[in-house]
Amino acid sequence: MDFDDLIISPDGTHHLYEGRPIYEHHFQSVGPFRFPGLAAVWDDTGAYHINFLGEPAYNERYAWTGNFSEGVAPVRNADGRYLFIDEEGKPIAFETYLYATGFSEGSAVVYHETFGATHITTAGELLYGDWYYDARPFAGGKAYVRDDAGWLFISPDGSALERTKEPDTPFPLRGTVRYVPPENPIPKVLQSTEWDAAAVLMRHGEREPFIKGQPGSTKVLTTRGRRQSRAFGAALSKVPLRTYASPMVRCVQTGDEILAGAGMDGETEKSLMLGTPSAYVADDDIVREFYVVNPVKIMSLRYVAGEMLPGHYPVKEGTERMFSFVESTLKDGEISVCVTHDAWIVPFVSVLTGYDFTDDWPGFLDGCVLMQRKNQYFLWWRGEEHLLDPSSLLRE
User: Fold this and answer.
1) DSSP 142-188
2) 179, 235, 355, 360: least surrounded by Cβ within 10 Å?
3) Residue 93 DSSP class
4) Which is an annotated Pfam family here (predicted)?
5) In this structure, are strands 108-112 and 99-100 parallel, antiparallel, or unpaired?
């Protein structure tokens, strides 16, 4: 049965197949069925999605639900915030937005009150690394966006194509903010702070975006990710430098680009403590399956809150293991750079400093600095130094 064969009734309250209702219940309004076989409906309980039997696809109720496209649907909650859900009703990411469109050509437009407008993928990832004042859905491989100089077309990788006039089609809002990432502060911190030995624990450079249903292990650095990683290394070029990385390709690439930028010989040393599995993972097979169906950001926040996730060490034990590894890379007068993933930076920094990542997720090449100074340890994060006591680091 083709979705187009399921017709909305003339009064808009149910669906018909060959002129007959496909279920008994009537709603106040219904939308069309879309892959994976769900339709948006509204009744006295709120807005939600139903299957072919007229049954709710999940328990949650919303103020509004949009149509599914590419296996994802936009919804608006009671607070007026937009988010995206999958066919089981689970949010695809923990962020909510001022406004969001449905998916078109693999991406959706979102507006955030602090960052501005951009496009995201069906996995809730940024399609590219930039934010704009305004954005419009992709059509024919290009999209309207507005920056400080006005409107332009961009490609799906974020590259500027050409300047253009403002689109004629009206839109529900006009943006007033645009986030421009600041210069990476870590090189300046290392240059301006006294230390005997220093280690950077950082997220890899900008990689290809995740897409719902696609494996993430093969994602490599983008051209911009390579360029920014090399620039990071160049900013540290006056100090002896070593790099360690999760065996994931994008992490090793980041380490190699940092070395190249610093003009250093040698290769990035791979370490399972930094990823696949990492210091936090007791059973890699279980964890891999777990993150296929559960959003990393949502699970990471639950993990640092003390929830025991499948295949993981307790968060404090994992942090102790990660600290021991990073500490082992320290050498007098040198900087070690340990390239890992956002999922492991979050618990590390959270446990050691108490930092709340709910509204501030680590970006690409974002990280913390462990400094040894006169037999004391300090962790720099977000402009603050935290004195650590390794002898009782994670003990209550």
Assistant:
1) BEEEEETTEEEEE-TTS-EEEE-PPPSS--S--------PPPPSHHH
2) 360
3) S
4) His_Phos_1
5) antiparallel
Q: Is the CB of residue 73 less than 8 Å from the CB of residue 42?
A: no
Considering the domain architecture, whether residues 147 and 81 belong to the same structural domain is answered as: yes
Q: Please name the residue that has the structure tokens 């807005």.
A: 47
Confidence at residue 259, expressed as pLDDT on a 0 to 100 scale? 97
Residue 91 lies in a domain: yes
Phi then psi for 255, rounded to 5 degrees?
A: -60, -45
pTM, two decimal places:
0.86
- Give yes or no: residues 148 and 190 share one domain: no
Residue 176 falls inside a structural domain: no
Helix spans in the chain (H): 186-192, 223-234, 249-262, 284-293, 296-304, 315-328, 342-353
pLDDT means over runs of 10, the chain (396 residues): 86 96 96 96 98 97 97 97 96 93 96 97 92 97 98 96 96 96 94 96 94 80 95 93 97 98 94 96 92 86 95 96 97 98 97 93 96 95 92 58
Nearest Cα to 315, choosing from 327, 301, 326? 301
What CATH number does the domain containing 318 carry? Answer: 3.40.50.1240
Sheet containing strand 15-17, strands side by side: 6-8, 15-17, 20-21
Range of the domain at 316: 186-392
